[in-house]
Amino acid sequence: xxxxxxxxxxxxxxxxxxxxxxxxxxxxxxxxTEVKKACGTGECGACTVLLDxxxxxxxxxxxxxxxxxxxTTIKGLSNGPKLHPLQEAFIKYHxxxxxxxxxxxxxSAKSLLDENPNPTEEDVRSAIAGNLCRCTGYVKPIYAILAxxxxxxxxxx
Length: 157
Fold this sequence. Notes:
- By secondary structure, this protein is an alpha+beta fold.
- The chain has helices at residues 22-29, 85-92, 102-115, 121-127, 139-155; strands spanning 2-7, 10-15, 48-51, 54-57, 70-72.
- The chain folds into 2 domains: 2-76, Ubiquitin-like (UB roll) (Roll); 85-155, [2Fe-2S]-binding domain (DNA polymerase, domain 1, Orthogonal Bundle), CATH 1.10.150.120.
- The protein has a 5-stranded mixed beta sheet with strand order 2-1-5-3-4, sandwiched between helices.
- Strand 1 and strand 2 (10-15) form a beta hairpin.
- The protein starts with a strand and ends with a helix.
């Protein structure tokens, strides 16, 4: 099947099999290796992308299901050299160590902040609950997300 995928505001035409997952097409066919592939069962959050603004595990979405929808990866958050406030906050608060979970965690946080610009710590914990991290203990990412919410409120996106 020939489908069109809108990834980070760029439209790709790609030939896929109907059973190929979005994560596989993003990584293997389109070169978006910033989308991590890990569990393949939707449990770890490493492959999280925004699909029409909502955080989803791309290993559970068929590529054909994403046709005509807006897909955003971690690279799609920045505007050239200008980082998104979430990306800036993760750097400022040292909210990552190995970095494998970071793209998915930031995209989950982005989805949360788009829906709820004034989250509580519990809201943040709930939003990133599907993003497994073995390095950080979640404390610094939670601080970073709350700080980003404040930055966005004060300075805009």
